[in-house]
Amino acid sequence: MLIGHQPKEFLLAVEALSVSFDGFKAVDDLSFYIDENEIRVIIGPNGAGKTTVLDLICGKTKATSGSIQFRGKELTKLKENQIVAAGVGRKFQTPSIYEDLTVFENLEISYPRGRTVFGALAFQRDAAVRERVEEVAEMIFLKDRLGMQADLLSHGQKQWLEIGMLLIQDPDLLMLDEPVAGMSVSERVKTAELLNRIIKDRSVLVIEHDMKFVEDIAHKVTVLHQGKILSEGPMEKVKNDPKVIEVYLGH
């Protein structure tokens, strides 16, 4: 037997994934693979199936056929909360933060120990929690806003807070749906910096329309069109692919 010829271990392996809604194939025999510490961006025209892919990975939508393996564990059989427990975090397009709580409380409430009823009762604001909250707050540029009520934050800061609420749970894969929509230019630059910083310990899967932002963060880009992969590779390659220019970038 040859040693050292094991198949490559991917963080996430999506294989032959399909889902149909009333006979319409939203995702059609899709396969892609994400490495450890990778930022993967999925782009494509509206209706390409991008958000549906995230829905399938996090268990919100059930696949018609195919496989989603995360660290070798099959996700298609698991419930949404089991997928979160396995290490997959998901942020939706609109920030869902607790607006009447402070930044500190939003982060504290997301700390993993407080999630079960028993955990919540036994939950103490101990040094470890405070330290972790401050560490994450620094990552998301909100260290000096910890005492501020969340509804007073700017749109971009609310997006960062929600990313922080996921980060404090320490997922191995973080999925973000259009994280910079509605952000100012400077907030977009800082978000790119944030994502490039947090992949030391995890991978990030992003859906995005802002091409400048994609260029700033993507290790690899997957272009979807009608539920299938149109092109895949580094941004440079994808940007110059005649099929991509025709279907997507040309508009």
Write up what this structure looks like.
- The chain has about 250 residues and is an alpha/beta fold.
- About 35% of the residues lie in helices and about 25% in strands.
- The protein has 10 helices and 10 strands.
- It has helices at about 50-60, 80-85, 105-110, 115-120, 125-140, 155-165, 185-200, 210-215, 235-240, 240-250; strands spanning about 10-20, 25-35, 40-45, 65-70, 75, 90, 175, 205, 220-225, 230-235.
- The strands form 2 sheets. Strands 6-7-8-3-9-10 form a 6-stranded mixed β-sheet, with helices on both faces. A 4-stranded antiparallel β-sheet has the order 2-1-4-5, with helices on one face.
- A hairpin with a 2-residue loop joins strand 1 (about 10-20) and strand 2.
- The protein is globular and about 50 Å long.
